[in-house]
């Protein structure tokens, strides 16, 4: 293959990739553009750059959405921490401990991966009402964690199985208890996989919309995704929507995941590209 | 030896004892269940949404005012007569002695109707929206509270029986309810500022008490010497004639409920408080809450007749609550949790003791217990995990499969009302139509989802894979995955904005290009709505699929590529012959994930069109959601879930098997 041909190919590849990239960013750029414009500016000339820039849109949007944002961050953080702890626990128990019924119990967890959420949606909705959890954060946390830990345990077990057994055996000889062996040896060695679990579950929980919509009623307890939707439909219903502020709210709701992604993108991308998830 | 025999006997005694206790618990529990069912559903059915009601014992007739402008009288569940007005009925007052019925309607009229045949004897035009009416015992005077909301004006109007206006008292605060005092010289009303005010007929304020909450209902006790003002938050005040607070209390309103109506039984024992989300709370005369239940939906009126309370609300239902048995309910509610647990615990205990008595099983149990103890650490560490999955996953799964065959609904929500209906729910899927439409759409969604996920992500992965420098690769990878930070709800709403007919990106761009003829109401047109939803997410760079495929390419053996190149294979051939076959496992996984994801997903449809226009974008998942939440048809929703689950299982199994054969 000639060098010239090689370069031409590289250029074609780059051009096509850039086209895809630009197309993928069209909605995001539209969102950013609209969020800085007033209604008059949007209806006047849709494509024009905002002049003057309407920073007040962000004041309005953040003012309305900040309580829900705090709710989201808190409830997602609580749920993620519990999920991580249970994943590490379960992963360790199934990877390194021996006990009767181990396979059956692990199968019980694994089988849940095959169960679609729509099957359990209705009974869970009734269940949280029976348990008097309706309209509380527990109605979000318990179902999230109970389902979210399944994948976490699976990942952690796969990872922790590869930690040499001798490490634990020698530690136990030195009088280390099972709990200590886990917290002092297994967990530090599995930091990377636990971080993957944390990032994935955070994105999952933060993104959830239907379940909070069903199980939380008061706006003071509601998470950001539902609050955004409520704001949007309220704007649609009255007809005189402040589109700029609404889109500023969209941007605001995007910020937490954006920050998370900036710090953990390498981890997230590596986790998925490495063979951790393969058919 | 003798000691052992004693032991054996002890086990037997314990087993029998537990069995007896178990039997007692089960019977007691069944009895308790009966005494807790104090809500009876009446046979009266208007076929439309009810609003207010009244009952006359001497005629044994129930009068129902509806939202759909009708006033209907029922006797023994049979319709006696009906009468039409122009607005929803607000309040009905009966004067059985002279056979007159006074009905306040939102069409600004107070109708005076003959109770026996429904003929309108007279109507009073108030020219304002009516909130409440009150009538003196002799029927000579009618007081009406009204408001013109747009002008922020409220009035209390007094009329004589012929409709002649006697008095017009003007206010700027909306008055929700009003009643005459016992001597009928004065009036008491509540307003939306949370005040209870007593006035004389000239409008002079005689007494005032204010709660710290918005008032919603004002009741008069049967003796007429006490008044109860109830706030939207469930707090209430018992007041005497001069508005001195006799006692106060608060119902523990859960689930963010807002009180809409309250009621008293005529014995004066209990206060009933109903909420907008359909809960009913009962307070006794020591202000403690003794009972709460869930009714079909929002409570709009209550009426005490002796010990019974008739309740109606938004919907076609009238429930009767027998307050006579409420005294036992208190005890039953406290006892029930214990007996409920006990009826499961004691049979297990009985079985356990029996096993301990029989030598064979005795040995087995001991071995089992020893093993459990030896490995206790592992089990203890797994307790939280399994507690969660059993309560929040396995219980719902079993419930879904069992209740899919029942008439379980928001209304039929107690053990005694849920009944087995066989395959009724599954038959309904095929007769009702929505499900079949949904399956048709789902099929289109599935096919397009496969096409989307098998083209662009592979292509983009290949592009990035073909780039030379690692830095460039990383930059592109980062940027291509970056859009996942937009929450899916925001993304969907953003696309909804893009499709907006006037200020959406697509129509604006078409307008700029001079292609106005191509502009559409994308989501509002049956012809385009489905495809607009499918097009959402263009250019379909699925981050997960992209990264997985990219990882697959990276795993391809370098020596294989070298060998192919040495044989003179070009890029095209290498891509088709080597790279693609090598990522087959990844493709299989992505196909399964896409399949499971698409079958369940209704977020996009829900946010963009809600299934419309018409039913053109319905999917089974959305149908399930609507039935579980809006329609409260839980059994049917479970059946839909079961069908979707089986569908996913069968196709996943086929896929797995097929790719196993291919290997």
TrEMBL record, chain A:
Residues annotated as domain ABC transmembrane type-1: 69-264
PROSITE patterns cross-referenced by the UniProt entry: ABC_TM1
UniProt similarity note: Belongs to the binding-protein-dependent transport system permease family.
Keywords recorded for this protein, A-Z: Cell membrane, Membrane, Sugar transport, Transmembrane, Transmembrane helix, Transport
Topology in membrane: Multi-pass membrane protein
Species lineage: Bacteria, Bacillati, Bacillota, Clostridia, Lachnospirales
Record flagged with keyword Cell membrane: yes
Domain of life: Bacteria
Localisation: Cell membrane
GO terms for cellular component: plasma membrane
GO BP terms: transmembrane transport
Organism of derivation: Murimonas intestini
InterPro entries: MetI-like (IPR000515), MetI-like_sf (IPR035906)
Main location group: membrane
Residue ranges crossing the lipid bilayer per the database entry: 12-36, 73-95, 104-125, 137-160, 243-263
Name of protein: Multiple sugar transport system permease protein
Matches recorded under Pfam families: BPD_transp_1
Automatic annotation (TrEMBL), chain B:
Membrane topology, from the record: Multi-pass membrane protein
Transmembrane segments: 344-365, 377-402, 442-465, 474-495, 529-550, 590-614, 634-654
Keyword ATP-binding: no
Principal location class: membrane
Listed GO CC annotations: plasma membrane
Start and end residues of each ABC transmembrane type-1 domain: 439-655
Family the UniProt entry places it in: Belongs to the binding-protein-dependent transport system permease family.
UniProt name for this protein: ABC-type sugar transport system permease subunit
Entry-linked PANTHER family: ABC TRANSPORTER PERMEASE PROTEIN, INNER MEMBRANE ABC TRANSPORTER PERMEASE PROTEIN YCJO
PROSITE patterns: ABC_TM1
InterPro entries, sorted: ABC_transporter_permease, MetI-like, MetI-like_sf, PQQ_rpt_dom, Quinoprotein_ADH-like_sf, WD40/YVTN_repeat-like_dom_sf
One GO-annotated biological process of the protein: transmembrane transport
